[in-house]
Amino acid sequence: MEEISSLLHGFSVALTPFNLLLMFVGVVLGVLIGVLPGLGGANGVAILLPLTFTMPPTSAIIMLSCIYWGALFGGAITSILFNIPGEPWSVATTFDGYPLAQKGRAGHALTAAFTSSFIGALVAVIVITFLSPVVANFALKFGPPEYFAVYFLTFAAFVGMSKGQAWKTISSMMIGFALAAVGLDSVTGQLRLTFGFIELLQGFDFLIAVIGLFGIGEILLTLEEGLAFKGANARINVKAVIETWRELPRYWLTSLRSSAVGCFMGIVPGGATPASFMAYGVAKRFSKDGDRFGTGQVEGVVAPETAAHAAGTSALLPMLTLGVPGSPTAAVLLGGLLIWGLQPGPMLFVEQKDFVWGLIASMYLGNIAGLIVVLTTVPLFAAILRIPFSIIAPIILVICAIGAYTVHTSMFDVWLMLVFGVIGYIFKKLDYPLAPLVLALVLGDRAESSFRQALLGSQGDLSIFFSNGLVGTIMSFGIIMLVWPLVSAALSRLRKAA
Amino acid sequence: MSEHHQHERAAVSFRTMELVVALVIFVFGAIVIYDSVRVGAQWAEDGPQGGYFPFYIGLLTCLSAVIIFAKAAFDAARGRKAFVTTQQLSMVLQLFVPTVVFVGLIQFVGLYAASTLFIVFFMIWLGKYSWVKAVPVAIAVNLALFLLFEVWFKVPLPKGPIEAAFGLH
Questions:
Q1: What residues of chain B, 50 to 109, have a C-beta less than 8 Å from chain A?
Q2: B155 to A192: CB separation less than 8 angstroms, yes or no
Q3: For the segment A99-133, what is each residue's pLDDT rounded down to a tens digit?
Q4: I need a surface site. Which of A47, A372, B116, B126 has the fewest CB within 10 A?
Q5: Where are the domains of chain B?
């Protein structure tokens, strides 16, 4: 069991007082980001990324990933207490979480949510521990065609998973790719799409896009609803925790199923949000209390939370092993790796053992830290939510502006952030998904260069992408994903006709 | 839900917005295609030219825009709904316009002064707070930002004449 010894080594890297401190700081910041409107996992990490430029990479990734865990935990708080999902993946948590809170069982709902999140994450981290060395080892054999095939599958999966809005997914993805192409073309040295603007020479930084699209866009959306937080009382006492923990083992099968759904959806870039809905649906169908879902069933909180956290965590597996992030937040973390001078992908497991295993070990520790923090500090965060929006909103906007500025110490980026904010607001309302845009912006250059290298090798013959079993299989899966919306539409039409 | 929204006027309908956005995306795609052709979207002696990959990206952008446009044009049920009501739009603008002014101010007076003004303005104008509450909050927030960024993490933020007067750069 080589993984075990690597993992133990990882613990020795992660378990320094400084790193432990960063873990708690990260989790607290993360929960804060998770509960505040307009700040979410992806843009929260993006805003705080510049703070880590001077840290050693291992400490930096530990802090940033802990912010991510914190945000995953935090989303549940607003869903249950205020019926406002702090994060898209906690929408499904509101279905049963808020009714529970209304019945005066907020403490139980929160405990169930946090504990399930923890279990989902734990399962996902175990999967990462044992699966990622295998995947990385396998990926060492990848050449440019295989890499392009993996990118193709990633993006095709987005199209396949989009419900009825496949063309909007494609549109948003292509905009991302086009924005990624802006600037100096590293192969030919030509300027593309800059139209004489020197600010565009470096291209668009996806961190700015993330802060604008998710941060500013989200705030504008929140404002529309006219914010009046009316929340249930938040207090977790020991009695509620123990009662819930005694109840939870009853739902072990739901937890297991939800973890499986979550891990799968996280690794295949479906993401935490669909995973949480899917797990809720599955639990509703299989549970003997299925028809009482929506009225305040603890099981209805367990299922989406487990899946969301499992998906959010396992999204880091393809990011580390292949350099293909499974979610916008994983994409931001990937951006971090590049900034610290680390090349994500299979070589990371060979050349940067300390970093990789330190990070994996920190996932275990970070989630334990997360569970402790959220169970003990819920009243504090609920109090923050009661601060009126007219105070919170300008502060969040200032923080977003600082985040955008510090990426390249450039004011142009702050203006760009505002533009992306408007785009985010409009796209969100029109159901254009934002995640494909961000991922295409991150991966665009690398997808293009693997495409070019593959074609160079084959002298422009596209059959290179089906030249051997491996690349052919990945491409075929991608094509199946791509035509899936058409197939399922045709199927449902047939069923209607019959 | 829809009942009490009915007497609120729609500033823009969904259909209009869908069509306009699809049109903008189409133009964007066309620009990408145009520039890719300029750079060269062919197969050169030594491999694909610079515009080869973006050319197809642009093509797909335009294609998706056309399909979205066509779909939106025929979706009457959703199309009539309000994309944003006048009331919602004015809320959004009340936030967005001051934010634009704030970003503009950063360039002249530095981040700290601009964000202090921004928070004070926002709390008094939209939050109906008094000066006595707004000013301390704004100053406390900026002090926290200063400590966090400049002191602990050593990340410099934009500064203006006020900081210069104190000898801070």
A1: 50-54, 57-58, 60-61, 64-65, 67-68, 71, 83-84, 88, 91-92, 95-96, 99-100, 102-103, 106-107
A2: no
A3: 888 888 888 888 999 999 999 999 999 999 999 99
A4: A372
A5: 2-80, 87-165
Q: Hey, of B95, B120, B146, which one would you mutate to test binding to chain A, going by the most A CBs within 10 A of its CB? A: B95
C-alpha distances out from residue B59 to A80, A177, A185, B64, Å: 45, 12, 19, 9
Query: What ipTM was estimated for this complex?
Result: 0.91
Residue closest to A445 by CA, chosen among A215, A146, A187: A187
Does A185 sit within 8 Å of B39, measured CB to CB? Answer: yes
pLDDT confidence of residue A235: 65
Cβ of A429 and B84 within 8 Å? yes
Spatial CA neighbour of A402 closest among B160, B148, B97, B109: B148
Written as one string, the DSSP assignment of chain B is -HHHHHTSPEEEEHHHHHHHHHHHHHHHHHHHHHHHHHH--SEETTEE-TTHHHHHHHHHHHHHHHHHHHHHHH-HHHHTSEEEEHHHHHHHHHHHHHHHHHHHHHHHHHHHHHHHHHHHHHHHHTT---HHHHHHHHHHHHHHHHIIIIIIS-----B-HHHHHTT--
Judge whether A73 and A86 are in contact, CB under 8 Å: no
